[in-house]
């Protein structure tokens, strides 16, 4: 049969990260390419206890269909955690999703008609390009500076174009590790409010701050904006438990879209995660993850300085799982990738993270899923590969 | 903020079933309105054992990110079960989804451009109207007869219109309980093949046959058609574990769409369901569900004959969870619903199950989630409500 697929399927870039993962199956490869949390950080025993408890105490119910919005006590607990951080979020403002990736799909569904204007950061989270891409918007992009988006460029584009959404990862961004400063957040809030553009703020790494001072999400300054959260980085990514925070008018549409998309998120796992959070001190657990990732991040920064040549620039993130490297002028990270693979070290070439006019001399490095010895060895190998590129 | 939502959000009907569930919260209400499996049928202890085992043996891995396609051994097991039924399905033909509702969303994403022609049964599964509706197709509908779709009407519409998909629940359909006969399946296969229309065959209840002889899905006669399956009716619906079977060319697009939609399905639960299926005889378990539902179905058929007036017609399904009632000529099931609620019995008025020109004298009754005493009492109450309608 000769299938006629929907037009939108031509608009979605194939995930280069996915392609890379095939290469990195090799046992000898040291991979900074993935985006995986360190499995050491998973609370396996506590999850086992929580699972046993919900099945013993409420077995038939936890295996039954449930509500689209999600398990109410879990939503209450999330709302309370926000309140502790100074954000006014109520239980009804929260919808449980299949990881924060589904937040992107639902926001695309609810807001985006073909050719609607969307502003992304430059570079931006690849999977957001893919998720929104299916709704065929017109992408624009605004550069990221060291302290967040270039607000002059943002304001210019909002003046010139009809822009519906601005998508931003405001803390420890994927792929760059960049965090918006307090001033930058205020500026962005003012600009978006003035131009009536919806903020879609993605905050998967917010709790993994291991240096510096916590800064509240921009949502605290734009109450009717949209915020994503997830348990992927603090409990388990395999459980696919995320959430959207949205004002009532938007929430009603999101719930309708979620219901049509998959009825509701895995109820069994919602109950397990809730039980885990009730029976354990998750803040202590998060503290341990921070310690672990800080030592890995420190090792990576140190090894870059030690083993990569002088022309290399890099971000020095205060949290999260990634840092961003800019190669010596004119060096293509895609060409380097091929040499690096031969040296048995992998990364993600930066050009996959752009919606338009990609920078070709950048790369993303993940530090959360390698031990310190691997980071040192991997950086030596990357240094060798860069040396070989320069000698070509 | 004055939100501008996407046009597609106006095309999705609000779920009346959802609205009904609010009314049926009342403890004294006997509800035939829901679509829930009987929680008695959930293998709670065996799931507890399986969960404990996967967390003990492979804890860090089962909590980590995983592949979009799903856990390969689980997909192999599903393929093997199809082979036992005489269907040539390979492991690579299977994508694990969040329940079969997500199959609908992914098929809509991959195939449907705005105004593409889709043929639905008349009546059809409400949530399929909602899921496809978000992709703004042009819906057409073809009546269901006692032995499946009206093939003359189907062929007529495929001749007259450009139709991309035909959506069909071929065994124990929701809402009617109707099953396509062997001959009807063959006819439908011929017509669809001739007109190059893709079959989307949904088979959530196929294993819950408690009378008559098993008939293979139409997919067995159209190898490159699309088939949905689910563990919701044989293991647990709350775990949201379904799957799509599709040929390679379509599978590639489905995987891309799934990745953009939520990266992958809950890996922890995939591992638990697989372990459950490995360590237990699920066929014995299914046999018990069949026995349970058969006695409930028999009681409902008997009670309809005993307590509802003569003009009432009904289907007598050989499996599944629903039967379909046609009221005496001219009686509105929506008006009856209001009276029935006062008598403390609920059902779903049939008109919610049509894409166009709804029949107003029909209703769906669920028999899987009430015990026999409740079925008897509920039917008495429904009889009283109909009597009152007739006396008005």
From TrEMBL, chains A, B:
Keyword annotations of the record: Aminotransferase, Pyridoxal phosphate, Transferase
Gene3D superfamilies from the UniProt entry: Aspartate Aminotransferase, domain 1, Type I PLP-dependent aspartate aminotransferase-like (Major domain)
CDD domains: AAT_like (cd00609)
Record-level GO BP terms: alpha-amino acid metabolic process
One Pfam family cited in the UniProt record for this chain: Aminotran_1_2
Molecular-function GO terms, alphabetical: pyridoxal phosphate binding; transaminase activity
Domain Aminotransferase class I/classII large: 39-382
Residue ranges the record marks as coiled coil: none
Needed cofactors: pyridoxal 5'-phosphate
Subunit organization: Homodimer.
Assigned protein family: Belongs to the class-I pyridoxal-phosphate-dependent aminotransferase family.
Protein name: Aspartate aminotransferase
Lineage: Archaea, Methanobacteriati, Methanobacteriota, Methanomada group, Methanobacteria
């Amino acid at each position: 049969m000769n299938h006629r697929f929907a037009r939108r399927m031509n608009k979605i870039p194939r995930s280069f990260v996915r392609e890379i993962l095939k290469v990195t199956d090799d046992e000898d490869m040291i991979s900074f390419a993935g985006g995986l949390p360190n499995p050491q950080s998973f609370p396996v025993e506590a999850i086992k206890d929580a699972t046993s408890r919900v099945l013993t105490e409420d077995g038939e119910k936890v295996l039954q269909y449930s509500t689209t919005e999600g398990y109410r006590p879990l939503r209450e607990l999330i709302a309370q955690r926000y309140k502790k951080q100074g954000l006014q979020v109520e239980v009804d403002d929260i919808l449980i999703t299949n990881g924060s990736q589904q937040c992107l799909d639902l926001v695309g569904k609810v807001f985006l008609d073909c050719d609607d204007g969307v502003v992304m950061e430059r570079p931006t989270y690849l999977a957001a390009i893919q998720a929104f891409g299916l709704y065929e918007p017109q992408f624009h992009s605004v550069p990221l500076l060291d302290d967040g988006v270039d607000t002059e460029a943002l304001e210019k584009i909002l003046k010139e174009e009809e822009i519906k959404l601005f998508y931003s990862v405001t803390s420890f961004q994927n792929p760059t590790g960049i965090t918006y400063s307090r001033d930058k957040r205020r500026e962005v809030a003012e600009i978006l409010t003035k131009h009536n553009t919806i903020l879609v703020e993605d905050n998967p790494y917010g709790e993994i701050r291991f240096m510096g001072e916590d800064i509240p999400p921009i949502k605290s300054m734009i109450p009717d904006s949209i915020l994503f959260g997830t348990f992927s980085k603090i409990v388990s990514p395999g459980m696919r438990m995320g959430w959207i925070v949205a004002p009532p008018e938007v929430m009603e549409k999101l719930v309708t879209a979620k219901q049509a998309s998959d009825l509701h998120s895995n109820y069994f796992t919602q109950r397990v995660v809730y039980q885990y959070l009730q029976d354990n001190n998750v803040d202590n657990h998060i503290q341990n993850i921070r310690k672990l990732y800080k030592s890995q991040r420190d090792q990576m920064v140190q090894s870059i300085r030690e083993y990569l040549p002088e022309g290399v620039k890099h971000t020095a993130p205060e949290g999260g799982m990634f840092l961003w490297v800019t190669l010596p002028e004119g060096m293509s990270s895609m060409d380097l990738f091929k040499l690096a693979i031969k040296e048995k070290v992998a990364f993600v070439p930066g050009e996959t993270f752009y919606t338009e006019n990609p920078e070709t001399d950048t790369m993303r490095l993940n530090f959360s899923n390698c031990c310190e010895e691997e980071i040192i060895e991997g950086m030596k190998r990357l240094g060798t590969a860069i040396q070989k590129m320069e000698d070509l």
